[in-house]
Amino acid sequence: xxxxxxxxxTRNRRFSKRSSNAEDLRAHLRTLPNxxxxxxxxxxxxxxxxxLLPAESxxxxxxxxxxxxxxxxxxxxxxxxxxxxxx
Length: 87
Prior knowledge:
Blueprint: H1 8-30, H2 36-46, H3 59-78
């Protein structure tokens, strides 16, 4: 028995939510010193986002969250910089 295909509106909501999360993360990183690309690199290396996880969350949701954040950070690290150099 196959699973029914998701309606386009359902798919769009899922993708727009993920896109919204990336935009929120991008906006936050832009407020940090040293620019968003450098901040993204530091966050990815240090995995400081793990401190945001509720302790009572199931392990599989923690891993899903961390995987999504890592992916977003990797994308942000590779984006062309639109920030002006300090100087």
